[in-house]
Amino acid sequence: MKIIVGREEGKSRLHLVSINDQGKVVKDVCAGAEQSVNQSVSRQHLLLELQDDGTMILENIKMQNVTYVNGVEVHRKTVKPGDRVEMGIHHYLLDWEPVKALLPQMVDVRGLKTVFDDYREAIKQLNKKQAQSAALKSITGIFSMGAIAVGIFFGREGDFTTLTAILYGVALVATIFFFVKSWLDAGRLPELREKIQDDFQHSCVCPNDQCRHYMGNYSFYDNLPKQCPYCHAKYIK
After folding, report:
1. Strand order in 25-31's β-sheet?
2. What digits encode the pLDDT tens for the residues 39-71?
3. pTM above 0.85, yes or no
4. Counts of helices then strands in the chain (DSSP H, E)
């Protein structure tokens, strides 16, 4: 959004006009006592453009307008509420309070990047465990086929009967082990996935305490909009 700052015609008060991203006037207000703004301040003196990080770009609307920021004359500069902004050659001091009243509520969502990253990493590790579990179960078949192959090719001579028995034994033990492990994983991994999802839904919410709506439907941090679709607070990313 943008705010046009200048002097009210006639009563010479501080005049503020806020404009949304579509170029429409949202609010048109005046602040301060009559004749409080001197004549060196133009009726449309400077423009404040709100940035995603909560700062604002200050720019003189006309080249002949005079503006000082923290004692230094500028034409265009990044400022934040609290900076000393003076307009005109007679140094009219801008009151930030009526300006801040026009600004949308802003909340810092940079912490959500860690939430998204941790969630995706947790899901990645969980999928890796499931793939490893499936791969380990295939070892049972390898031992069984090995025992069968030894029995076929060497069983007649009798020299490898012991080896065949060992392979069958290992295959049996492996089958029992991986059966038990698969049975345990069948209950544990879905519970772990559910816990990861629950933790994500609890953490991935709008930081505005008056909102706290779930934001995980955007899938990635970079997909988050510039403002909350529920409370309309502007996001600092």
Report:
1. 25-31, 14-19, 2-7, 46-50, 56-60, 76-79
2. 999 999 999 999 878 889 999 999 999 999 999
3. no
4. 3, 12
